[in-house]
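C-alpha cells in:
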C-alpha cells in the first residue's frame, strides 16, 4: 500500500494544490499569502484523500473468494 500511496500522493497533491490555487486566483486574491495558504491547504487535504483512494483501489483489486 505504501508504494501505491506514494504514487497516488504525487498526483493527488499536485491536482488539489492546483485546484485550490486556481480557485484563489479566480476570486481575485492574487497576493502571495492566499496563494501560499491555498497550496498548503491542498497539500494537507491530499493526505487523507490519498489514503481513501488507496483503500478503495486495494479493496477493488482484492481477490474475492
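Residues out:
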Amino acid at each position: 500500500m505504501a508504494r501505491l500511496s506514494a504514487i497516488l500522493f504525487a498526483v493527488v497533491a499536485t491536482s488539489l494544490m492546483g485546484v485550490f490555487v486556481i480557485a484563489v486566483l479566480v476570486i481575485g486574491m492574487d497576493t502571495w499569502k492566499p496563494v501560499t495558504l491555498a497550496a498548503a491547504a491542498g497539500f494537507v487535504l491530499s493526505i487523507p484523500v490519498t489514503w481513501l483512494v488507496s483503500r478503495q483501489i486495494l479493496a477493488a483489486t482484492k481477490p474475492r473468494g
